[in-house]
Amino acid sequence: MKIKESSTNHENKKNLEQSCSEIYAVNLISGRWILSICYCLRQGTLRFSELKSRMPNISERMLTMQLKKMEEEQLISRKLYAEIPPRTEYELTATGKKLIPILDELEIWGKEHKKLKNEL
Asked: 32: number of CA atoms within 13 Å, CB side?
């Protein structure tokens, strides 16, 4: 469900994003798939079908929507080749590549947290 731009929730979200860079960043990469797509693209350029095969639980529609959002936010770039059949490749932009060390730290934190939680 999309939040109406006039809603109080939307206004609160925008105010938080403007006053707190961390909230802005988290909102930008939040959701089920964006970090997964970044993780796949950290190795380099991939075609749509390659991304889809690395994330078998995502629908083609959802992958398309997430790639479009990421392109709009300048996290990835899309290169369309005028071939038959058409070929499209995706890669992290310079801004998107700055997420790689953050992904590495999240991976470490996630492993540590999982281990700690399982010990309880």
From this structure: 7
Task: Give pLDDT tens digits for 41-99.
Answer: 999 999 999 999 999 999 999 999 999 999 999 999 999 998 888 889 999 999 999 99
55 neighbors 46 (Cβ within 8 angstroms): no
Q: Where is 109: in which H helix or E strand?
A: helix 100-119
Do residues 21 and 39 share a domain? no
Q: How far apart are CA 3 and CA 107, in angstroms?
A: 31
Residue 50 sits in the same domain as residue 80? yes
Distance from C-alpha of 111 to C-alpha of 93, rounded to nearest angstrom = 27
Please choose, from the candidates 8, 35, 13, 38, the residue with its C-alpha nearest in 3D space to the C-alpha of residue 24. Answer: 13
